[in-house]
Amino acid sequence: xxxxxxxxxxxxxxxxxxxxxxxxxxxxxxxxxxxxxxxxxxxxxxxxxxxxxxxxxxxxxxxxxxxxxxxxxxxxxxxxxxxxxxxxxxxxxxxxxxxxxxxxxxxxxxxxxxxxxxxxxxxxxxxxxxxxxxxxxxxxxxxxxxxxxxxxxxxxxxxxxxxxxxxxxxxxxxxxxxxxxxxxxxxxxxxxxxxxxxxxxxxxxxxxxxxxxxxxxxxxxxxxxxxxxxxxxxxxxxxxxxxxxxxxxxxx
Length: 252
Prior knowledge:
Helix 3 packs antiparallel against helix 4, helix 3 runs parallel beside helix 6 and helix 4 packs antiparallel against helix 6. The strands form two sheets. The protein has a five-stranded mixed β-sheet, sandwiched between helices. Strands 5-6 form a two-stranded antiparallel sheet. By secondary structure, it is an alpha/beta fold. Helices cover 47% and strands 10% of the residues.
């Protein structure tokens, strides 16, 4: 079993996304894939905060652009089943939550660290739901698991969070191992976790301790089809290749 990080730099165009998705479908059984948001989405979410703060009329366009971008990719990957409809419903639900956050931001006239963390995490949520839905449409056993479902805990600091490895280790072993033993493909959103109180915290790349910034699949100069170029990374010990679970700080 391997934990493979795929960065947003490799989720940037039709050809690359399809190629990576096909590799996961054919070679991903029994592995974990940690996904960044589609290329440009996190920046759009962050820029959207300033736009929403300045003018509430901008919010509809922000939400519409995000819906169009993810629906386009979904139509590219999902066909001949009801998966597109299921994903569209999930996407609409998440976008409705995001819409309320932007309007709340406009009402309070303040971008707090907590609000910034919550809004920034939506891109990763969208993409893991999309990939899992697309694989299930192909009859492949796949699931996306959010941090609150698997107990991926942070130290609780909004705007400057790091993963709480001590608490997270046991939770991942307990919650993921049975699914992996069944050969399931698991998708986990990169860059965010929860506090013990259930609050979302974005693990900003410069502070990443658990799912660090990839110098493999997120690197545009590397062949995105090379699965060994995707990696599991710790900030202090960067690696180039995907690592087996026995070499990831005993997290699994």
